[in-house]
Write a structure and sequence with these properties.
Length: 678
Amino acid sequence: MKIALDWINKYLDRPIDAAEAQHALIHGGLPVENIHDFASVPVLDVEVTSNRTDCFSHIGLARELAALTNRKFSPPPIDDALPLAATIGEFCSIQVTDAADCPFYCARVVRDVTVGPSPEWLRHAVESIGLRSINNVVDITNFLLMDTGQPLHAFDLDKLTEHRIVVRRARPGETMMSIDGHGQKLDDSMLVIADGAGPVAVAGIMGSKPSEVTEQTRNILIESAQFHPGLVRAAARKLGLFSDSSFRFERGIDPAAAESTSRRAVALIAKVCGGKAAAGSAVGGSYNAQPKNVSLRPAQIERIVGLRLAVSDVIKLLQRLSLDPVASGESVVCHVPSFRADITREIDLIEEVIRLHGYQHVPMRARVAHAVPVSEPDEAALRLIRRTLQGAGWHEAVCYSFADAAEAALFLSPGEGTLLRVADPGRKEMNTLRPALWPGLLRACRHNQNNGNPQPLLFEHASVYWQPAEAARGAPHEEQRLALIGPDLSLVRGALELLVAKLSAANRLQVQPMEQVQLASGVGGQILLQALGQGDWLPIGSLGRFSPAIEEYYGLKHPLYGFEVQLSKLLGAFDPMPQAAPIPRFPAVSRDLSVVVSDDVRWNALEAAVAALKPDHLAKLRFQGVYRGKQLGAGRKSVTFTMDFLSPTATLRSEEVDGQVQAVVTALQQQFAAELRN
């Protein structure tokens, strides 16, 4: 909000300079962003919060400065001694169709005006705050808008069909050319000002080009009204049409200002432009400007802020804010005027008292105690997941929640359900909620590959959505997932194994071959998790290489692999109190084995066979890799794994370990016809 100090000083009993005004406003909670001169007059750009609608005007900020600096505020007088024409009923009529949309509408008429350039004082006032001088009538409405905060609009009365004003919702298909020369398509969600033929203004936002005031105008109608803030806000955004008026209507205005500002407008127009005002006003609806009674207990100031103030001092501070405080027992009752819509509770009055008294007087404690909340296990687990993946070189992505319908269909298995689309005819692309996290990550990978990064390492945790088949008429399903994509299967599986181990050393993980619609045949599987080493093996997601259809859809230059898991089941495998174990005193002895088995023998079967044998001192069994080659023969593969042996009491000798290794080889030969590969 730009304010000119010469304008402000007209309402103060003694002038204030720029430095004092800046200091007072900043310490009163209204930061001054900058100060510049216009024709040697200081102009302050004040940052006003949206709840202080009374400060979106020169009168409001003059009243605020008077309270902050202990000056007297004098509002401008209204000159009602005007030359009068006939009564207004002879010139126009007003109809408001819904009081909820427009609680109050006031119209006044001035006849036989002379529209032309503004006098110097008026042109200087509007130009000092960055507005363009247009003509004397329009400049008066802009001057009063910036002076009082009440928007006004001037119509050329002779251009209003039937000299009639109807405040109503727009009808489907109606259009209007706004003053800026652009055509506006209206709908029934918008409130308009109409004459006998159609819309002449979008209420609270902008008037129409055909009804604007020009140099040929002789008779004008001045509109001053109160419109529903939500309707103005919605229409302004839908039309992309914003103005100083809509800015104020959206935030709410003083209901008492409409009538008084209308009277000032007529007086100024008669003085500056000549002409005669029609007697009275045409009114639709009514306004309520009764003060609100809000009580303050001075003892609460000390309890909340730690500052003890005498009741008499509290009353003096509140009097400076025009709140008409009266002591009543242990409370002070304030009669809050209509322009202070932000004061509704006792805590609001406490804030006002401290603001005027000075924040610098609030006592500071030497020590302030803050209770540190204990992290929820799920939050701690999620932080651990992110930290682990980032530490392993993966980058977190935040992808769009929407996908194209054809793209999303690639990731929803038949029979699983249906996709969820947005019912917005304007959204022709990316109109389907993602049923998986992979689509967004694959788009990000394609972008990386196209820009010289062929091996992106990306992960994301977010929600996915679909309509389950078993609840076709029920609520859509939303689920939190974790997904990861990389250029190598071992990297992807290694990241998953690292995560599961970090959540708890007792967790157990395996991947079972399973055909998935998103994954290539024979290179995909279902992820099973035994949380904390106990209970059932639960399916939590999928892992593998993306199918040829997906590689073709995204135009991938290199194969990509990934996993996607249900985040809730992964978080359920978190142990918030991990158990520590002493570092082994003696070194481990490791033995590598490569056994040739049939191609259909899975690693988890070999692992289970070794575990069932329970070799002495076996501390860990680690999978190393698989090899297939001509020398092994068709349908055969070589599986390499490592066995780590460890004794807590002594260093193991080779002969102690060799016997255990031979027992493992024998068991695998008997169960899987395995051959030891040299």
